Amino acid sequence: MEKIKAWLAKNMIIVFLIMLCIGFGIANNTFFTAKNLMNLTSQMAINALLSAGLTYVIILGGIDISVGSVAALAGVICAMIGLRFPGMNLPGSIAILILTAIVVGGICGLLNGIMVTRFNVVPMITTLATMTILRGVTYIVTGGVAVFGLPSVFSFLGAGRIIKTELYPTGLIPVVTLFTIVVVILMHILLSRTVFGRHVYACGSNKQVAHLAGINVKRVNLAGYVICSIMAALGGVLVASKLQNGQPAAAEGYEMFAIASTVLGGTSLIGGSGSVARAMFGVAIIAVINNGMNLMYISSFWQKVVIGSIILLAVVLDMAQKQKKN
User: Phi/psi of residue 274, each to 5°?
Assistant: First the structure.
């Protein structure tokens, strides 16, 4: 019994996710259909990318609430570039999406990282400012109008599907799901199996000790913000690919879903602990709640109340566990 209790305490998020799935499955017969489950994985993809990047920053003891604006800016810029190549092929469209995410995300991450590490600005204030600035820049470069007229191949990465059958003539498995799985696995390996990953945990646990151990704390923190923004930009270009246009208002509020998912996955807001893999359970919980409530025709307003309550509960539980350990 003690072992069972210990396992349940350690893996409560998994139990909660299973209970949610069973509950929504009983409440609505559509929930466990192949079509809905595939749609669910597609809905999880963007938040999974944002949460994977945000995990690094939160483990480092920081926060980044600019990820939604970074995503929107990257989506708009890749759409504007796509308009200049009306005859682009599939490899070319994928290259534009990924390279735009790396460049735009890298610049935004450097801006956040430099403000935090070089000028010692509080991460919350830094990313609040960049959230507003980048959203404003997005509206300026588009004039507040969505970027339309992209080639059809542009939508493959975000909206394409593979494995076509008679029941699913357009395809069953979303390409965005497969792409996200590969990226998340790479992010998990980087954090859990590399020297850089160990440095991230060390800096998040105790910056002074990490510095005395010879770790360049500022460089690690800077890299964390760059990774976070690149992942957010990847999410943004996938949104643009899915919609086949660049929306200046895209990804508004996504930062709250990403923070909720990361904290639900056990990443401590104090820093020093967490993992990309467990953050994905948080992503799944948020997606299941949204999907299940949509199937039950529950107002999106109530969905916001539920997600906000979950964030608050997760933070309270995290603080309680820290006090218990101390």
Answer: 140, 170
Query: Measured between alpha carbons, how far is 130 from 57 in angstroms, rounded to an integer?
Result: 15
On whether the CB atoms of residues 26 and 193 are closer than 8 A, the answer is no
Helix (H, G, I), strand (E, B), or coil: what is residue 161? strand
pLDDT beyond 90 at 288: yes
Q: Which domain holds residue 170?
A: 34-251
Output the pTM of the full model. 0.94
* Residue 149 DSSP symbol: -
* Sole residue written with tokens 């943004």: 236
Report which residue type is found at 304.
Answer: K
SS3 174: strand
Closest CA to 274 of 200, 181, 223: 200
Listed in sequence order, the DSSP H helices in the chain are: 2-10, 12-27, 34-59, 67-83, 90-117, 123-142, 156-159, 175-192, 195-205, 207-212, 217-243, 254-264, 276-295, 300-325
Total domain count, the chain: 1
* Residue 277, domain member (yes or no): no
Does residue 128 form part of some domain? Answer: yes
Report helix, strand or coil for 162: strand
- Distance, in Å, from the CA atom of 286 to the CA atom of 289, rounded to the nearest integer, reads 5
| In a domain? residue 199 | yes
For residue 171, give the 3-state DSSP assignment: coil
Question: Would you state the pLDDT for residue 179?
Answer: 97
Instruction: Give the pLDDT score at 323.
Output: 67
